[in-house]
Amino acid sequence: MLTSIRGLLAATVLAGGLIASPAFADDETDPPKDITISGYATGVTDYRWRGLSYSGGDFAVQGQINVAHSSGIYAGVWGSSLEQDALDVYGSAELDVYAGWSGDVASGLTADVGVTWYTYPNGTNPLIKGNYFEPYASLSTGLGPVTAKVGVNYAWKQDALGGDDNFYVFGELGTSIPGVPVDLSAHLGYTSGALSPNRLTLTSTDGGFDYSVGATYNITDHLSVGAQYVGVDGASIDGFSNDTVVGSVKLSF
User: Fold this and answer.
1) Average pLDDT, stretch 69-88?
2) What are all long-range contacts of 168-174, with beta carbons under 8 Å and residues at least 24 apart?
3) Which among 20, 58, 214, 217 is most buried, taking Cβ atoms within 10 Å?
4) Which fold has domain 8-252?
5) What angle do CA 66, 81, 73 make, to 5 degrees?
6) pTM value?
């Protein structure tokens, strides 16, 4: 996900070294950069989060900027357009501000811990606020040609969650098809608490599962298209909790 960007200054220093230093003929290379910046812009046919739609089943524009240090510390912001809700709690945009640390904790095992602040900058309801915090942690590893990840997210009791808390646990698998620029993925998650799909579709107060399987075709190193089948527990409400296929076009840097 993180792709190093060489700045203009680095290019200038490199060019100056080629002119001024004969030692450059000795196959010397620049040391790795301490900070990398990455990001992407994408269009999706539906903004689905943990199985539920936050764009009313319609097209959404999304993007991310991430800054990472060689120590493993990172921070960034992710954003998406939304469907305007009737109470204007969320408005028409979501910005997720996050920070954390990622690194190896054992041979072949990578940890990722941090916290996300979900914020809705143009929600104007003076009585109900949508903003809340959610810490997260995950472990990922390689199993031959397959990558595997398990994680947990927990949001404590907050006003935006109706004074309740929320617990989310998930597992993911990913792999690539040899000789073909296609990646495959699968996801299974379970939500218990304020954001349970059963609760949000007025089915019950029980927790509920969401799942997805998908494929991404990498046209170039920076451009890809994808399709993902998404399903979720709870009542099937068109444009919110019905099973669907989500298409995407993504440009990364």
Assistant:
1) 94
2) 168/50, 168/192, 168/195, 172/148, 173/146, 173/147, 173/148, 173/149, 174/146, 174/147, 174/149
3) 214
4) Porin (2.40.160)
5) 15
6) 0.85
